[in-house]
UniProtKB/TrEMBL annotation:
<dbReference type="InterPro" id="IPR051043">
    <property type="entry name" value="Sulfatase_Mod_Factor_Kinase"/>
</dbReference>
<keyword id="KW-0449">Lipoprotein</keyword>
<dbReference type="InterPro" id="IPR042095">
    <property type="entry name" value="SUMF_sf"/>
</dbReference>
<dbReference type="InterPro" id="IPR016187">
    <property type="entry name" value="CTDL_fold"/>
</dbReference>
<feature type="domain" description="Sulfatase-modifying factor enzyme-like">
    <location>
        <begin position="43"/>
        <end position="442"/>
    </location>
</feature>
<protein>
    <submittedName>
        <fullName>Gliding motility lipoprotein GldK</fullName>
    </submittedName>
</protein>
<dbReference type="InterPro" id="IPR019866">
    <property type="entry name" value="Glid_motil-assoc_lipo_GldK"/>
</dbReference>
<dbReference type="InterPro" id="IPR005532">
    <property type="entry name" value="SUMF_dom"/>
</dbReference>
<dbReference type="Pfam" id="PF03781">
    <property type="entry name" value="FGE-sulfatase"/>
</dbReference>
Length: 457
């Protein structure tokens, strides 16, 4: 092709492109769908702003790990209550049911059963029949399915058919075989009852360590992806182990599963399990968004940073001792403002012996309940007594993967008033579970226009 023809062809393409464009040749930017922020269910919007973080008065305990400093945080959503047993059971049941469905699909594949065969065939992988696949699904199935260690990675399990838990209604012997593997062996059962083998309730997820990738620019993307597998069932034995020579068997037996405690905060959950819950909540919500074609994906749910937690706990009050202000733990009517251990160990003085329902006592000015007392809360931070000296003043966060001492905040039903102070810091090891530690989640707010610098005293 000579130069004249090339120039003419280029001119024709340019004219056609301009004629078919709606921007009339102007720089208008790439326009996406209009964004309408949606407040997540059960959460409150915490407006970004600056506050005095740390001890505003004398450090009576002499810990000296929270010197006062000005910090600024961006806007975010936070659960108005601690995560409850009912909410955490949704996570546990999702993991259990997903594992059961995968086992059913694998066995159906091994014995050659398909949906038309009934029985276990109804739970076969959704790609068992490739006739209804889209072009993309067929491409992915043919090129990527089975590349993992089990040979079943990437295959879609069937969520459209309800699972059967009543043994009298099991559809066939294959289904019975799978369900039998999910319970404890007969020899480990008593009183004629078999219970779930909760050690098999494991949640697998992966995430990118963005900070590590940012620090080491040459690192390959795949090397910055961290894979985790976490047992999700709470450790109910904490009610026994945390209190030697104390009768707490009813709490061990009933607290997590019984409906009487559904709205109480979940405990016996490690920092690692709390992180896994956040990942599941994100996956679960985005799966729903994906089913509503055209709906935007949501930001990740996560544990709050230490600064975010303290900022939210203060509820806009500067230099306050407690979420309600202070410096007293009783109201002007003589009622305790939180669930803790008052009056030299009289647990019942605040009308609660152990935990109380997550939506108890009066919320703070951000409408958050029990930011002091009830259960201490995991945050996404590692404990370093000197961290306030070197953290940034904007969105301060210290979370060292090698430091297994993770911050807990807010104090609990078994703590004295000092630990209820919004500036008090405590820690527990990431793999430890306690009868007095729970958590709540946060989600980043999209945009920066929601800010507030409170001048409340």
């Amino acid at each position: 092709m000579d130069m004249k023809k090339f120039i003419l062809l280029t001119a024709v393409i340019t004219v056609l492109a301009s004629c078919g464009s709606k921007d009339r040749g102007e720089l208008v930017g790439v326009q996406g769908k209009k964004w309408h922020p949606e407040k997540p269910y059960g959460m409150q919007l915490i407006p970004g702003g600056a506050f005095i973080m740390g001890k505003a008065d004398d450090d009576l305990a002499g810990v000296h790990d929270a010197p006062a400093k000005t910090a600024t945080v961006r806007a975010f959503y936070m659960d108005e209550t601690e995560i409850t047993n009912s909410e955490y059971r949704q996570f546990v049941n999702w993991v259990r049911d997903s594992i059961v469905r995968m086992k059913l699909a694998v066995l159906a594949d091994e014995v050659g059963k398909v949906p038309d065969d009934g029985g276990i065939g109804e739970y076969a992988f959704k790609d068992a029949d490739t006739a209804n696949m889209s072009v993309y699904e067929k491409y992915m199935f043919e090129n990527y399915t089975g590349l993992g260690p089990t040979g079943y990675e990437g295959r879609k399990i069937n969520h459209d058919v309800d699972l059967v838990f009543d043994t009298a209604d099991y559809p066939d012997e294959y289904y019975t075989e799978v369900m039998d593997t999910m319970y404890l062996p007969i020899e480990e059962s008593y009183n004629g009852q078999r219970t779930w083998d909760v050690k098999k309730f494991k949640f697998q997820y992966s995430y990118m360590d963005i900070r590590e990738a940012a620090r080491n620019r040459g690192v390959k993307r795949k090397n910055a992806i961290i894979k985790e597998e976490i047992e999700v069932y709470p450790d109910t034995t904490v009610w026994i182990r945390d209190f030697a020579y104390s009768y707490n068997e009813p709490m061990h037996n009933d607290y997590f599963w019984h409906d009487a405690y559904s709205n109480y905060p979940v405990v016996g959950v490690t920092w690692q399990q709390a992180k896994a819950f956040c990942e599941w909540r994100t996956i679960n919500k985005n799966a729903y968004q994906k089913s509503k074609k055209g709906s935007a994906m949501v930001n990740r749910f996560r544990l709050p940073s230490e600064a975010e937690w303290e900022y939210a706990a203060r509820g806009g009050l500067q230099a306050a001792t407690y979420p309600w202000g202070g410096p007293y733990t009783k109201s002007d009517r003589g009622c305790f403002m939180a669930n803790f251990k008052p009056v030299r160990g009289d647990y019942a003085a605040d009308q609660a012996l152990y935990t109380v329902e997550a939506k108890s006592y009066e919320p703070n000015d951000y409408n958050l309940y029990n930011m002091a007392g009830n259960v201490s809360e995991w945050v996404n931070a590692s404990y370093d007594p000197s961290s306030y000296a070197y953290t940034s003043t904007i969105n301060p966060s210290v979370n060292d993967r090698d430091n297994k001492r993770k911050i807990v905040r807010g104090g609990s039903w078994k703590d004295v008033a000092y630990f209820l102070q919004v500036s008090s810091r405590d820690y527990e090891y990431a793999d430890s579970a306690r009868s007095y530690i729970g958590f709540r989640t946060v989600q980043d707010y999209m945009g920066t226009q929601v800010t507030k610098n409170s001048n409340k005293k």
